[in-house]
Design brief:
heterodimer; A: five-stranded parallel sheet; two-stranded antiparallel sheet; B: 309 residues; alpha/beta; Rossmann fold; 2 domains; 12 helices
């Protein structure tokens, strides 16, 4: 599936950070772009100038290593000045290799160690239920991240409490750090597993804006259970040499020729 | 002590609807009254400790004051990363109520013996560690803990421990209590080892070796002011703890003195659990005796230190 100009623009912001930091989880960020774009463009309620607005929807990026994509959309939405992107991973920057609560406006939880976001999200969702509040809680995990048992513990709790205000979105690019998820630790049958844990399970092409929107609509109107959306994505989406390539899970010290190739893939005219 | 802590949590939950109790898979009937009276503030979430810590973090992010209760080893060993990241890094006011600190679960073997819990958690920034000595003190601690802004680990004793705290004591988290004024020697203790030290003092009193007891209910942050005030006044200091000699109260005291009072270091000796897993069952008392953690050993050690044998 082709990506449009806005998706390319967001990817351009990501690459800008990689250049500054000389490193980054490129493949893991590129697969997330459309998921985050739909959420922030069309779904989440938020006030960028009041990040802690009590009635906001909460988004927890549990796969914290995908933060380049989140930073790009948060900057685009003016949670912070885009100039901050030019400080990625520098000593005094608010933007590091994983997102930190309290440093970056719009970040709900510090993540990086995997398997933490969903349990935290369950607590946040339960708090909303107890207080009769209507905001939604989105937790985005990776696929390799689902190897962690804490996710399945939290899933049982989410189901027990009928947390229909909680949506687990899985960036299922099918490649974890070492290689294919099917070879490292098979997740399939993922849909059935999630169903058996009590979720309403939906599936989408994670780069198709309409499909993601449609799933989120179904989540919003689900009455009695948490929702899991399996987003089928492509690791490294948009950069041909990174697509489906585990060696692009994380990259550092890219050469000038690499950047030239990336720009060519994204049809960059000039750096912003 | 445990029963009192639960009753006190129930009482404070009545007055503050942000207080929420979260158990793992505790004994049948536990806090049934609270469950009936305050169902939204009572959760029992199963043998899923890692998730429970994360969930408590999420609740605290939304303004709740969670008290998480399970067996000490299952909190500290299994959930270290959740405590480090979800609670301490975010600096959230979650209280960890840990059953069976030390050798309480002696008959159940090494999987259940919390001999390393203080050492494990003392490494974490923002963590407060408290080990009260009896039911009166735990009541005061729980009441004060509501407003404590950071994560707190509360190490509970067996229950039925001798009451040595007066109702009118001025209890403050982080402030040591002098249970007996020192003269020549000082025992520094935490948890129910304070009772052991007072017993040792009785033995020594009969020999006119007058020693005192500094009860460090709060191990982190350690009360450096009390150490600075009392250590220079005595000839010998002995720490007593129901914990590995690595990382617990004695280590904390040595670390403090190494930085702040190096001239006092030579006075300090330590009583605690050797660096090995328990190799026998029995009771808390028999296991502590096996490790030479009792009032006789404490009084002997003090005599030797003071060269009064």
């Amino acid at each position: 599936m082709k990506i449009d100009e806005r998706s390319k623009y967001l990817r351009k912001l990501i690459i800008k950070m990689v250049e500054v930091g000389n490193r980054g989880h490129i493949g893991s960020a590129m697969s997330l772009v459309e998921i985050l774009r739909v959420l922030y463009d069309d779904f989440l309620s938020f006030r960028a100038n009041v990040p802690n607005w009590p009635d906001r929807d909460r988004l927890i990026l549990s796969k914290g290593h995908g933060c380049l994509a989140l930073f790009s959309i948060l900057a685009d939405k003016e949670f912070f000045d885009k100039k901050e992107l030019s400080t990625f991973c520098q000593p005094k920057s608010i933007l590091g290799g994983h997102p930190e609560y309290g440093k970056v406006p719009g970040i709900e939880a510090s993540t990086g160690a995997l398997g933490h976001g969903l349990p935290i999200g369950v607590g946040v969702a339960l708090a909303a239920k107890i207080q009769n509040k209507n905001h939604k809680i989105i937790v985005i995990t990776g696929d390799g991240e689902l190897n962690e048992g804490s996710n399945w513990e939290a899933s049982m709790t989410a189901s027990k409490h009928k947390l229909n205000n909680l949506c687990l979105m899985i960036d299922y690019n099918k490649i974890q750090s070492y290689g294919k998820t099917s070879e490292v630790l098979e997740l399939e049958p993922l849909n059935d597993k999630l169903k058996s844990f009590g979720y309403q399970v939906l599936e989408a092409d994670g780069h198709n804006l309409d499909q993601i929107q449609s799933c989120l609509y179904n989540f919003k109107h689900c009455k009695e259970k948490p929702t899991a959306i399996i987003c089928h994505t492509v690791k490294g989406k948009g950069i041909s040499m990174a697509e489906n390539n585990p060696y692009w899970h994380h990259k550092s010290n890219l050469k000038e020729s690499d950047y030239e190739e990336i720009y060519a893939c994204l049809k960059f005219e000039t750096l912003i | 002590m445990r029963k009192t802590s639960l009753t006190t949590i129930h009482n404070i939950a009545r007055k503050n609807d942000k207080v929420i109790f979260i158990g793992s898979d505790l004994g049948a009937g536990l806090l049934d009254d609270m469950k009936k009276e305050l169902p939204k503030q009572f959760l029992m979430e199963g043998v899923s400790e890692q998730s429970i810590i994360g969930m408590s973090a999420g609740l605290a992010m939304e303004g709740f004051i969670p008290y998480v209760n399970t067996i000490a080893t299952f909190i500290t060993r299994r959930c270290f990363e959740q405590i480090a990241i979800d609670l301490c890094l975010h600096n959230l006011p979650v209280k960890l109520l840990a059953n069976g600190g030390g050798a309480v679960y002696a008959p159940l073997g090494p999987t259940h013996l919390a001999i390393d819990d203080i050492g494990i958690l003392r490494t974490l920034p923002n963590m407060t560690i408290v080990a009260p000595c009896d039911a009166v003190e735990i009541n005061k601690l729980i009441i004060e803990s509501i407003l404590w802004p950071s994560p707190m680990y509360i190490r509970l004793g067996k229950g039925g421990d001798e009451i040595i705290t007066n109702d009118d004591v001025d209890f403050k988290i982080g402030k040591a209590l002098i249970k007996k004024e020192p003269h020549i020697g000082l025992f520094v203790t935490t948890g129910v080892m304070t009772q052991v030290a007072l017993e040792a003092c009785k033995i020594l009193d009969k020999e006119n070796i007058i020693c005192g007891v500094m009860h460090m209910h709060t191990i982190k942050p350690i009360d450096g002011n009390s150490i600075k005030k009392y250590f220079p006044k005595v000839e010998s200091v002995i720490t007593i703890e129901e914990h590995s000699l690595i990382g617990g109260l004695g280590s904390a005291v040595l670390e403090f003195c190494s930085n702040e009072l190096p001239q006092e270091l030579h006075k300090i000796s330590r009583i605690g659990i050797p660096d090995k897993f328990a190799d026998q069952y029995g009771s808390q008392k028999t296991l502590l005796d096996h490790w030479n953690i009792n009032s006789n050993e404490a009084s002997n050690k003090m005599r030797k230190k003071l060269k009064l044998n």
